[in-house]
């Protein structure tokens, strides 16, 4: 008797050895509810999980494979510090080398670079680009630390779009938390805002840049030479991207399936992300990296867990009022912000 099987998973692990963790797919703005199957600290497959308000019983093929980048791209596993333009490299190393640095030294270095640019060229000479693939907790601390405490006046979110909405599952927007970025006050993804920052780098008006979760060299028209114009480039990312290769300070963050948190799908529904594996190397959740960087800018909050951050979001951001991390449960809850219609996901058998 034959049966349909998922070819990339076939013969990789016995299904009874898999640990199925309830979470959401981060492949697009739909946020399909899924089980993340892990064995021996490796993700092996994603399968749909029932949520009648989001994806009913389904998920797309692209979503099933959306975790594979974790194993196809080189991971960034430890902090990296390089010399900035015009500085002598430590211990005689050339600026192109990749010395690994202790976390505290990297945080001190990153804060010093940002402060140095702001002091020498004004606060407007520093900008930040953050990803809508980050969690609500990550984005909240990005706004709190980078925008409020470090005094960076511009935070922009790049869009990632491909194809068209199919009015069943697939969304053109390939970022899972664009709605969350908007509700938190950072703003919806905007190619125009990102373009302004990049043009200001080219014109010498932006001299320092903090990048969280994005590879800028993946944006058409952005070259390594443009990033080399910066006096300070601080990057937080889960992989050793071309942007990390140009960074003066780089911090390793957790990849998909390695951290806890929440995201808001295009419907305005807050849903929980759960970890299925341990992080690679010394990687930390983005919110924890931003918290520790924030302490160099007088952040006093402890922010011990993702849940404590979310509960502060619920207390301070009107769209999240009345929600709690624990009460989100397995299927999430709607925010108070306006949402797009749910679409027409057909129930099984119809």
Describe this structure in words.
- By secondary structure, this protein is of the alpha/beta class.
- It has one domain (75-86, 93-339): Rossmann fold (3-Layer(aba) Sandwich), CATH 3.40.50.740.
- It is 25% helix and 16% strand.
- It is built from 10 helices and 12 strands.
- The strands form 3 sheets. The protein has a 6-stranded mixed sheet, sandwiched between helices.
- A hairpin with a 4-residue loop joins strand 10 (261-264) and strand 11.
- The protein is globular, with a radius of gyration of 20 Å.
- It starts with 18 loop residues before the first strand and ends in a 16-residue tail after the last strand.
- Mean pLDDT is 90; it is low at 90-99 and 341-350.
What does this entry show, briefly?
The chain has 350 residues and is of the alpha/beta class. It is built from ten helices and twelve strands.
Tell me the strand percentage band. 15-25%
Order of helices and strands: EEEHHEHEHEHHEHEHEEEHHE
Could you give the count of β-strands? 12
Morphology: globular
Distance between the termini: 26 Å
By CATH, the architecture is named: 3-Layer(aba) Sandwich
Radius of gyration (CA) equals 20 Å
Count of DSSP helices? 10
| CATH C-level name | Alpha Beta
- Which structural category fits the helices and strands? alpha/beta
Please give the largest β-sheet: 6 strands, mixed
Low-confidence stretches: 90-99, 341-350
Mean pLDDT score, rounded? 90
Q: What strand line-up does the widest sheet have? A: 4-9-8-7-5-6
In helices, the fraction of residues equals 25-40%
Quaternary state reads: single chain
CATH topology: Rossmann fold
Q: How many domain modules?
A: 1
């Amino acid at each position: 008797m034959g049966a349909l099987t998922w070819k990339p998973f076939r013969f990789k692990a016995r299904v009874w050895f898999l640990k199925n963790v309830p979470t959401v797919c981060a492949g697009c703005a739909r946020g399909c509810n899924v089980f993340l199957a892990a064995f021996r600290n490796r993700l092996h497959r994603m399968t749909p999980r029932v949520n009648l308000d989001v994806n009913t019983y389904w998920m797309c093929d692209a979503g099933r494979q959306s975790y594979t980048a974790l194993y196809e791209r080189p991971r960034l596993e430890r902090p990296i510090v390089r010399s900035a333009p015009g500085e002598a490299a430590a211990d005689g190393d050339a600026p192109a080398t990749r010395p690994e640095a202790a976390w505290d030294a990297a945080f001190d270095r990153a804060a010093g670079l940002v402060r140095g640019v702001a002091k020498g060229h004004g606060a407007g000479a520093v900008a930040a680009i953050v990803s809508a693939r980050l969690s609500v907790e990550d984005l909240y601390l990005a706004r709190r630390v980078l925008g409020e405490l470090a005094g960076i006046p511009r935070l922009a979110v790049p869009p990632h779009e491909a194809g068209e909405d199919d009015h069943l599952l697939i969304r053109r927007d390939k970022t899972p938390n664009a709605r969350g970025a908007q509700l938190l006050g950072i703003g919806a993804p905007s190619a125009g805002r990102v373009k302004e920052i990049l043009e200001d780098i080219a014109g010498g008006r932006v001299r320092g840049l903090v990048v969280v979760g994005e590879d800028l060299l993946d944006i058409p028209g952005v070259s390594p030479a443009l990033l080399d114009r910066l006096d300070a480039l601080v990057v937080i990312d889960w992989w050793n991207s071309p942007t990390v290769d140009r960074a003066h300070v780089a911090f390793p963050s957790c990849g998909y399936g390695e951290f806890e948190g929440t995201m808001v799908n295009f419907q305005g529904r807050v849903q929980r992300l759960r970890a299925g594996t341990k992080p690679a190397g010394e990687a930390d959740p983005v919110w924890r990296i931003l918290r520790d960087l924030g302490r160099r800018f007088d952040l006093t909050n402890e922010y011990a867990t993702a849940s404590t951050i979310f509960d502060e979001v619920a207390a301070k951001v009107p769209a999240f009022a009345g929600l709690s991390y624990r009460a989100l449960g397995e299927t999430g809850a709607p925010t108070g912000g306006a949402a797009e219609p749910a679409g027409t996901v057909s129930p099984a058998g119809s």
